[in-house]
């Protein structure tokens, strides 16, 4: 991390978290972020669900909800980007305050509730996206929708032509009853609709499914079966958790989904279990804040990883640091590629 980035983070941490996040996006758009582009090497290049990635370290959804900083983010070290979540109609989300930094735990709690400018505004920005990168969109549903399952397909039809992949997000804890769509019957019906919409695109996309870390063993098994039956391309494991295990920060009891370091173990165990149930590619998310943690996710069964909350504490340059460190760890252990390392440490997490 540069001295300028360190000073910027220190200043942002002195103000309201959501305001600070908005200023961070503005700083990126003003050209104050990294400019080197994705970190890559023969060892880091990998293929996930048909996507050619320069490295397996991705930006998770939520950092750039409205796709306003695509050009700036394309110049960072990330191997791929996911923006959103996008809903058919704009919505304000839940009342503020709705984001808390838990500095003592290197974590965050949010209850945003899919606040975004809607698919039309986001699609317009995606139409002008930078060339050459891998960019996906997290699909969401409006809180007051009469048919939430249909909302996912609606967003995909509108934005799909400008994307490399799309992620069905039924795992946010901040939209009432959204997680109910993770049940086997509801999830199957929802994904059938999304896959039908995807088949109707002139260029069908890899469709990912993002799940919660709070599923039971039986629910994890159901997710794996439904994902295979509906032919999604990958599973993203996991979203934020409602658990407060391991938290010490005074703000730990605020309502919402918790992300960051305390989620690492829980999410990695779900990832490893899924890896033992399905051959679908898995994207490991939750608590990734270092090259070693990215490597552990990969060895637990992930083909690629994503991060977001760690950027609050490590800055956007963290993506390059993690990718470079991952390259060294793979070389140290004799792996010629990311793919060779996938799942080699799964049993440590089961």
Automatic annotation (TrEMBL):
GO MF term set: dihydroorotate dehydrogenase (quinone) activity
Entry annotated with the keyword Membrane: yes
Domain of life (superkingdom): Bacteria
Domain Dihydroorotate dehydrogenase catalytic, residue spans: 44-330
Chief location bin: membrane
Compartment(s) where it occurs, according to its Swiss-Prot or TrEMBL record: Membrane
Pathway assignment: Pyrimidine metabolism; UMP biosynthesis via de novo pathway; orotate from (S)-dihydroorotate (quinone route): step 1/1
Pfam families per UniProt: DHO_dh
A biological process term (GO) from this entry: 'de novo' pyrimidine nucleobase biosynthetic process
Claim: Flavoprotein is one of the keywords in the record: yes
Annotated GO CC locations: cytoplasm; membrane
EC number: 1.3.5.2
Gene3D superfamilies registered for this protein in UniProt: Aldolase class I
Alphabetical keyword list: Flavoprotein, FMN, Membrane, Oxidoreductase, Pyrimidine biosynthesis
Top-level EC class as recorded in UniProt: oxidoreductase
Catalysis: reaction(s): (S)-dihydroorotate + a quinone = orotate + a quinol
Entry cofactors: FMN
Protein family per UniProt: Belongs to the dihydroorotate dehydrogenase family. Type 2 subfamily.
Function statement: Catalyzes the conversion of dihydroorotate to orotate with quinone as electron acceptor.
Protein name: Dihydroorotate dehydrogenase (quinone)
Organism annotation: Limimaricola pyoseonensis
